[in-house]
Design goal:
Structural class: mainly alpha
Number of domains: 1
Number of helices: 4
Radius of gyration: 18 Å
Amino acid sequence: MFCAKLDYIYCMDNDNPKRSLLFYISPCAIAAVIVLIGIIDSYRQLDASQGWSGIGLIIGIPALLMLTVVDVVVKFAITRRALIVWLIEVIVLLAGIIYMAYFSSFGF
């Protein structure tokens, strides 16, 4: 099966089990790295902020856990299709942002 260069993120050869780099660098993985940086920064600033950075830890640790679980579940469910993984994860992240903005007590 021949795949054009533009279709590489969606199309894979059956004989070639290598996955696209975009399969591993997905929206939930990027968001998890950003949240992890926030957790590390909150932990480092815990003494200087007199404990206020603990809020970043309280919010960041469950967010990191949820992002990791969504990422792993989607990647186990959808194998070898980076475009579909990206679409599903973007929809899940947008649904979470919309929920927080309009239906949660943490609204913007």
